[in-house]
């Protein structure tokens, strides 16, 4: 996951696991900021409330400027400033996606999104329904099964990977169902196959969507069921590029290196070192991409799921940077393949120890 100029190495007294906890990731980012002197460039305790076109500029001209209104929480001061460009890098793991289920609004028992979940103990001896069997659903279910009375997984299909099948067969209190049909005030959960249970809690592991309530640009960029667009190469709105850009929209990529590429491309464009295709060509590219996804039956919410290294290499070529190293790809694919057959232990590093020798050889700090 490490940035190309800041390898993710184990430090003394820190989390040395191959899949470290979130605190280790935070410490890595803090180390990165300290190394490159970034903290003094960040305004903490500040919320951006509104981003709009500067009144005296044509929003479609090359000299477009922006008015950004923010609030300093410490002194409750409202500040308005004018900028030449805006980069939206707010991430996509905060605005919750919740399913529409008959009776959900009237259900009187507990229900929460996985975003709120922290530890399994509060659910001890409960009957818990986990909606969704992607990464969060699997991880939470494997924690809950040790303390809960029953754990019921709800999925769109019962066609599951070998790894999850092994986990279910191992635990007598872990069950798999199809989607929920309805919820009832007395705690009943009815599934689409007609089966029914009485539950204490529902945990929605149903992912996230994007939201940009601060963007006041007349719908030029919109979110449609998780599809943010139009965006050329998931980064630039054709009508406003490069003055407005987005970092961090793509999913199913090796995140930090890919977002680093996005940042470099934006910097190259804003500094005049590179140029984009014409607005018409960018819009045509976006429309062709959408048509391809729609024809393949890909839901709009999955528009930004990359999931292949070929696109990553194409993106690197657009930026003019080296492709992902082969060891990164191999480590990524090894973990994915291992998880599909051994969900409970794939985070243990023994199976990829040989692969790790390559990055350790090339990236380890050398003595002066």
Please summarize what this structure is.
By secondary structure, this protein is of the alpha/beta class.
Provide structural commentary.
The chain is of the alpha/beta class. Helix content is about 30%, strand content about 20%. It has eight helices and 18 strands. It has helices at about 20-35, 135-145, 160-170, 255-270, 280-295, 310-320, 325-340, 355-365; strands at about 45-55, 65-70, 75-85, 85-90, 95, 110-115, 125-130, 150-155, 175, 180-185, 190, 195-200, 200-205, 210, 215, 220-225, 225-230, 245. A five-stranded parallel beta sheet has the order 6-13-7-8-9. Helix 4 packs parallel to helix 6 (about 310-320) and helix 7 packs antiparallel against helix 8 (about 355-365). It is globular. The mean pLDDT is about 95.
Key features of this structure:
globular; 18 strands; 368 residues; alpha/beta; four-stranded mixed beta sheet; 8 helices
Shape label: globular
Ends distance: 26 Å
Q: Work out the number of β strands.
A: 18
Can you give the mean pLDDT? Answer: 93
Q: How many strands, which pairing sense, and closed or not: the largest β-sheet?
A: 5 strands, parallel
The computed structural class is alpha/beta
Quaternary structure: single chain
Rg calc: 23 Å
- Share of residues in helices: 25-40%
**Topology order in helix (H) and strand (E) letters:** HEEEEEEEHEHEEEEEEEEEEHHHHH
- As a percent range, the share of strand residues is 15-25%
Low-confidence stretches at least 5 residues in length (pLDDT < 50)? none
| Total DSSP helices | 8
Biggest sheet, strands in spatial order? Answer: 6-13-7-8-9
